[in-house]
Design a protein that fits this description.
275 residues; six-stranded mixed β-sheet; five-stranded mixed β-sheet; 4 helices
Length: 275
């Protein structure tokens, strides 16, 4: 099985025709994408968040991508919530926006898990829990998003609460499918970083949800696809979970004027624990 992976497209930073109310650094005009990047045999596109700073623009983009795939699986990033800050969209609100497009090819993983060819796809944004530090990083120092000082603490609490809720939700889904013999392997998709080995020591607070640690103990998880970091990574941990990112980022960081879709050949039941 082949799946294509992209994340952190930030299309509003790469296409001057798209509105961008909260630019982070320079904007350029190198729109995504070249259709020739789509490889034959890739039936599923996975988007691990941060298509844009506007959830409606992001959904329109997914709707366009559906013409090339049987399914587009999606978890939102933190940037899809910017227009709502200091509150966060509920998964029901996002699911309703997607449903209103009438395109059943778009699968919003926080709301709908998918079993595809003996593989379970589950996911969520993930958020971050400030690594349980008493000193909270001011996330807004690195952005031009302006909210009142009295609202920043509200944002912190909403994010921590959502991080805990989403970790619990993933664990509940794993428990639900634990005895399903149809499922031979699991692919987890999050936006935020799922494991601390990928963290920059100076930027841990708003990158990582430490509540996710228990999730990787599930023996059926073979792949964990994510974004948020803007660093391209592929790494396998001691549990034989392969972690993969494919972010574009913004012009102001890696300046990937040319960005390619990454095709992943999902090895069937690689851990061989079911024989």
């Amino acid at each position: 099985m082949k799946v294509d992976l992209i994340s952190d497209l930030h299309i509003d930073h790469w296409d001057l025709r798209i509105k961008c109310d909260h630019p982070c650094g320079e904007r350029k005009s190198y729109p995504f994408f070249d259709v020739t990047d789509i490889k034959p045999g890739s039936e599923v596109l996975i988007i691990a968040g941060d298509i844009s700073d506007d959830i409606d623009i992001s959904i329109d983009f997914m709707n366009q991508m559906c013409q090339y795939y049987k399914m587009v699986m999606y978890v939102e990033g933190n940037h899809e919530h910017i227009e709502k800050y200091p509150q966060l969209y509920t998964k029901e609100e996002i699911a309703k926006k997607i449903e209103e497009k009438g395109n059943k090819k778009i699968i919003y993983l926080p709301q709908t898990s998918v079993i595809w060819r003996n593989t379970l796809f589950i996911g969520c944004c993930g958020w971050w829990d400030y690594c349980n530090n008493s000193k909270q990083l001011d996330y807004f120092n690195s952005t031009d998003i302006v909210i009142g000082e009295d609202q920043i603490e509200n944002f912190h609490q909403n994010v921590k609460k959502r991080a805990q809720e989403e970790a619990v939700s993933l664990l509940e889904k794993l428990e639900k499918y634990k005895n399903n013999n149809q499922i031979k392997q699991i692919i987890v998709v999050t936006h935020t970083v799922p494991i601390n080995i990928f963290l920059d020591k100076d930027l841990t607070d708003s990158k990582y949800n430490s509540c996710m640690e228990e999730i990787k103990e599930n023996d059926k998880i073979n792949y964990w696809l994510f974004g948020h970091t803007h660093e391209e990574l592929t790494k396998q941990d001691i549990r034989k979970i392969t972690y993969i990112t494919n972010p574009r980022g913004r012009p102001s960081d890696y300046d990937r004027q040319k960005f390619n879709i990454k095709t992943i050949k999902i090895e069937k039941f690689r851990k061989n624990i079911f024989s």
